[in-house]
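Section 5.1 Outputs to date
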Amino acid sequence: MENTKIPRSILTLILSVSLLNLLIYLLTTALTSYGMFRDEFYYMACANRLDIGYVDHPPFSILVLAIWKTLFGDSLFAIRMISALVSSVSVFIIGLLTVRLGGKIPAVIISTLTYMLSPIFLGMNTIYSMNTFDFLFWISSAYIFLRLIQTENKKLWIMLGVVIGLGVLNKTSMFWLSAGVLAGTIFTPLRKDLKTKYPYIAAIIALIIFSPYIIWNITHDFAHLEFMRNAATRKYGGLTPISFMLDQILILNPISILIWLPGIIFFFFNKNGKQFRALGFIWLTTFLILLINGHSKGEYIAAAYQIIFAGGAVMIEKWSSAPKQAWLKYALILPVIVSGIILVPFARPLLSPEKFLEHQSAIGLKPPSSEGHETELPQFYSDMFGWEDLAKNVSKVYQSLPDEDKIHTVVYCSNYGRAGAVEYYSKKYPLPQVVCPHNNYWYWSSDSGESNGLDESPGSTNIRTVIIIGGGIEDHFKLFERIEVAGVYKTKYAMSYENNLTIFIGRGLKVPLEEIMRSNKVFI
């Protein structure tokens, strides 16, 4: 049974690295950010309509955002401050996990810096999303699981159940971690705990915490399952097991294989690391589930690599413990740091778009779009451009309408990025209410006025004019008696399908707006 205290010097180091991550994050957010990411607009729209579930995600991250923006506002810096704080806590726990696995100062430096400089962690922690919390819940669960192995304190199962419950209430991918915990328990000496009540209590606690989202899905025709099916077959239908494995190498920083490969060795082949093999099963089980799925994105397994980084750092430290091999730890970590710094501009905005394109050209690396669309900038960055310009253009069209028409006007947006941006900037520009068939907007636009925060249902007969963003005029003539081209929206650096959009004014609906919404419904 192990219950040793971590030396103060190492705790100070871990805290210092975590604060460094926080400082870097806050400075880059304040000084070099491009703009709000499309999903952030949607998350704020969700936070304005609190519920126990949404089509594409459980409610935890939305509840946090709702509370936070009530206290601190919804500016870009304000909402991304959450990611800065949460990601720094994740760095701290990675440091703690490394020490509990037997690492000392060199191992802590290796594991935390490898994490901080990995493109996937930099990118996902750049914006506000459930992914930032996902990393935290994975590494927190891993740390509790490790302490359970080391101390044999059965009551830690209860704490693990709470964290996993909150984790799945944030993102359902935590079920993969749960499968890993189960496999690690069954296939290691920890299986003796299955003869006690505590693992089952933990499972019940996690299920109770997650139950609101189960209830939401039951009352909404299992919308999340429909969303996942559509994503797998349509949005990510072109992904293969080969692309899944190659993507992991790229998003983690190709050179970081020098760290995570020793991590796999540590948990499964090293005599000292084998005692923690149950922890390694979290990564292994997740890897196998996603590989067998056949259409998984490499980023889905990213949170599990925090564990492998920690194990790899300890393994490298042990290899370099002999005086004549002390050079080894430097030989492995220095290339990771250098390559990580070179790749940082691809994951976190540090350069102007023009300078970034020069940097991208200089090193000959153009990341592909994860959804198969051509773009000058990486898709992650392109989705940060043009939204306010879009809102301003729609506002100009709206203001051109006669006053008696404005109160009977809505703007139709085909995706939640456009809808969320128009809603967000309605505080700055005169804009009509939004209808949209994409994900949870479909419910908000189809339900009663009370559900979507409007005085009237968008589908009511009082709607006489619809401002339409994009699409073809021939298609619009099928739905309206009269269609007028009101303008063309153009911007720079946005995704191709979010640029050069014609803005139409449609009058005289041939079919009820509710019917249009039903036929255009898209959960993806």
